[in-house]
Structure formats: C-alpha cells, structure tokens
Design goal:
The chain has about 180 residues and is α+β, with helices and mostly antiparallel strands. The protein folds into 2 domains: about 120 residues, no CATH class; about 55 residues, no CATH class. About 35% of the residues lie in helices and about 15% in strands. It contains 6 helices and 5 strands; from the N terminus they run αβαααβαβββα. Strands 1-2-5-3-4 form a 5-stranded antiparallel β-sheet. β3 and β4 form a beta hairpin. α2 crosses α4. The chain is elongated and about 50 Å long. The protein starts with a helix and ends with a helix.
Length: about 180
C-alpha cells in the first residue's frame, strides 16, 4: 500500500506522515497522554482486566503480563479499519496541508478511483483530530484499504473478518460528531 500511495501523491506537494506501525508503536499512541480521549474501549478493558483506576503513563510502567495483554489485543485488531489499520499496513496518513482545495479534490479522486482505497479527510491541530471534515479544512488524508478492487486489504492471522464499510463510516461519523473514538 505504501508504495502505491507514494506513487499517487508524487506529483502533489503532499507527504506521508504515518504508515505501517508495530504493535509497540500503536501502544505508544494508545497510552500517549495527548490521546487520552481516544481508544476508550480497549483502555477500559485493560483497566478492568488488571483492576486499575488509571492507565500507566507509558510502556515502561507495564508488567510483562500487561505487555503481553496489549500485544495480543492490538494484534487481534491489526489491519482492520475498525481496529488498528496502521498496524497491519492497511492505512496511511498523508499531510495535505500545502494543497489547495482543488488539489485535494483531485488527489482524493485519484486515490479513490479504483475503489481500492478510501480517503477520510482529517483536520489535526495539536492533540486534536477531527475526521470527516471538508476538503477545504482537511490537512491530513487518512487513507485505508477498502477490501475492494484488485488489491485486497491485508488481515492479521487472528482476524480474517471482511471490512465492514458501514461500521467504519459509523466510527468516523461518531468521531467527527463527538471528538471521541467509540
């Protein structure tokens, strides 16, 4: 996916800012204080499992058993658009802040043309991310594989469920409306 997106954006003043992550990098994002309102379900399950009131500030504060739990749970959802798409290499974030609205529209059309990828315009400012914003306001394109077209989305060995586009649209709609991941 990464090389395909690089090819599509090469004639634009855009750059890839995030792509394939390890489970450890995803855990860093989950525990990161600036993401305190994101990933509430997995955070709640972790606290319940280990009978904690608060999350550890970073990975160095985790026990071996806790690290193993995080690895298992993140890998279960790796590559899924309604899970951790970046972990499975099925999502790429592209900085489009230097593009005009017309260039964003053209790039989005080019990326989505074969229905292999879907673009969710995002506005990122500091620690806040808003999905589903207008192209004019977007400064990042969150791009993920749809599971359609010639290039199918990767899935982890643990999770071979098809991508549910309606569910993904719901997640992004909910995030846009509330500012909080469900």
């Amino acid at each position: 996916m990464l090389s395909d997106i690089k090819e599509k954006i090469k004639s634009y003043n855009a750059k890839i800012t995030s792509s394939n992550r390890t489970w450890e990098k995803q855990l860093y994002h989950i525990l990161r204080p600036r993401n305190k309102d994101n990933y509430p379900n997995i955070k709640r399950r972790f606290k319940e499992k280990f009978e904690l009131k608060t999350l550890p500030k970073d990975q160095t504060k985790l026990t071996e058993k806790q690290r193993k739990w995080w690895k298992t749970e993140i890998v279960k959802q790796a590559g899924r658009t309604d899970g951790f798409a970046h972990v499975g290499g099925n999502a790429v974030d592209v900085d489009v802040s230097q593009l005009t609205e017309k260039e964003k529209r053209d790039l989005k059309t080019q990326i989505e043309k074969e229905e292999v990828y879907k673009v969710f315009p995002e506005f990122v400012q500091g620690s806040k991310s808003n999905y589903g914003v207008s192209l004019e306001k977007a400064n990042v394109f969150h791009i993920f594989k749809t599971g359609k077209g010639k290039k199918k989305a990767n899935t982890s060995e643990q999770e071979k469920k098809p991508i549910n586009q309606d569910k993904m649209d719901y997640f992004f709609f909910k995030k846009r409306k509330t500012g909080i991941w469900v």
